[in-house]
Specification:
Elements: E1 9-10, E2 20-21, H1 25-32, H2 34-46, H3 59-75, H4 85-92, E3 100-104, H5 112-115, E4 123-127, H6 135-146, E5 152-158, H7 162-169, H8 181-191, H9 195-213, H10 215-222, E6 227-233, E7 240-243
Parallel strand pairs: 3-4, 3-5, 5-6
Antiparallel strand pairs: 1-2, 6-7
């Protein structure tokens, strides 16, 4: 079923990023630049001054707060909506101190802040169809870790993901939508035509890719300052399940 898809790929040379279609050569430049970005981010962190209150949280404490929030979301007991938004806006107007970063699919049925019952300034959310780790996405997550001090990085896949489904089907698509196929293809190769298995495999593979291709993120994990994991959001039930 997939035989007619042709992936003309080239390696960027950084050793950590997957091959990308050669019609997106600019990504090779950006990927190669990640090393420089990591150095720059490290310089920012060293001159950022005293640690914020967020930086005292352990990664596991952040995960518990998020999963507790997901339970409230499932039970219809959201607390974040009771926050005084005017006070929150005032507190976050000059700076942000999110305790977690989430790489989510762009799907409109995955409202990340609601899903974890978190309000303004608590989550650093990066969204792209298929929750794929492109160089630009990784750079954004590096900023969340190195500059903002996030303690948890979650790649959040979701049920019935259109990007993963389209990759499995391999149909011709207009414009540049087909650029989404290549990063998801390894998960489809591993899981076959099983959509649920491919969605989970994709989330885990993207989390692994982020951890391995970014010295900033890998360093934070090694120091115990950050935890990187993959999870799945079920659109029907609202439940977030951690993926081992």
């Amino acid at each position: 079923m997939h035989g007619f898809i042709q992936h003309h790929s080239v390696a960027c040379g950084c050793g950590g990023c997957p091959d990308v279609p050669d019609d997106q050569g600019r990504r090779r430049f950006l990927c190669a630049a990640l090393g420089s970005a990591a150095i720059a981010a490290g310089a920012v962190i060293s001159s950022a001054g005293p640690a914020s209150a967020q930086s005292t949280l352990a990664p596991d404490d952040v995960l518990k707060a998020m999963m507790d929030g997901n339970r409230r979301f499932i039970d219809g007991r959201l607390q974040s909506l009771n926050e005084d938004l005017s006070i929150l806006k005032a507190k976050t107007a000059e700076k942000q101190e999110p305790f977690a970063a989430v790489l989510s699919c762009a799907d409109s049925r995955v409202p990340v802040e609601f899903v974890f019952d978190q309000s303004i300034g608590q989550l650093f959310v990066v969204r792209v169809a298929g929750n794929i780790a492109t160089p630009e996405i990784i750079a954004s997550l590096e900023y969340g870790v190195a500059v903002l001090g996030t303690r948890l990085l979650m790649v959040l896949g979701h049920s019935n993901c259109g990007a993963v489904k389209a990759t499995i089907e391999g149909k011709a698509v207009p414009g540049q939508i087909g650029a989404l196929y290549a990063p998801i293809w390894p998960a489809v190769n591993a899981a076959g035509d099983n959509l649920d298995a491919a969605i989970d495999a994709n989330a885990k593979m993207q989390a692994t890719l982020i951890s391995r291709s970014s010295t900033v993120i890998a360093g934070a994990v090694k120091e115990g300052k950050l935890r990187v994991l993959a999870a799945r959001y079920d659109i029907a039930s609202g439940v977030v399940s951690l993926l081992g």
